[in-house]
Amino acid sequence: MRAVGKQVRVLRERGGFTQKELGDRLGYSEDLISSVERGRRTPQRELLAAADELLDAGGVLKAAIEDVEAAKAKARVRHPAWFRDYARLEREAVEINDYNCHDIPGLFQTKRRILALYEMRKPLLDEETIEQRVISRLARQEILMKWPPPMITSVIEESVLRRPLGGREVHREQLEQLLRLARMRNVELQVMPNDRTEHAGMGGSFILLTPKGKPQLGYTEAQSSSRLITAPEEVRILAAQYGSIRADALTMRESLALIEKLVAEL
Q: Which of 62, 118, 211, 246 has its CA 20 to 30 A from that of 151?
């Protein structure tokens, strides 16, 4: 923001405008122009585009718009306190193994599903908190596109895929996103069918995560509380359970076929 502000100041001075004159021409206050130039306020895309034209910047300010928007979104990422340690480790992960018995993993959720989940939360969350949580969860998904990407395996209960949280349209969009993600080379997605008579995951959802250059660890959460598991024996037990869960789940091809069938039924 300071770098963009300096560009605005240099271009303004080159054009012979005072801060007040520039503000008057663009429809903004002198104080706002001053704050933008000092990097204390985030310039709106409309301001940058208009200033680029007025100051004959040749596209320099327009080219910064997307980076400014991305920086603004990143600055608004605020995870709940009980989740921050895991979020930090997740950003460094080279491998993530996720068993979820009641929801779609956060890394796979669509924006509309995330919004629906927070809007139905009890006790109710205020609008600012909801917006912040949606932005934060979407920001986590950036690791799916980085290079090299982490290897991600996931087992989701069939019952989760049949529950249309957020409504049928939101649910269809979510299932279609799962199909797209499951076709990525670094993602292996399986479904645990409802008809299994034995299940190694009856203790609940958990994640096995391997940060780069560090030992694998476990993570569990429930009712806005969480636990990072670093004791080698406990991590070993979770890993053994996860192996059994994957063995009992549908194969990746069978899982894709089931999800495609569920989409067709909506």
A: 118
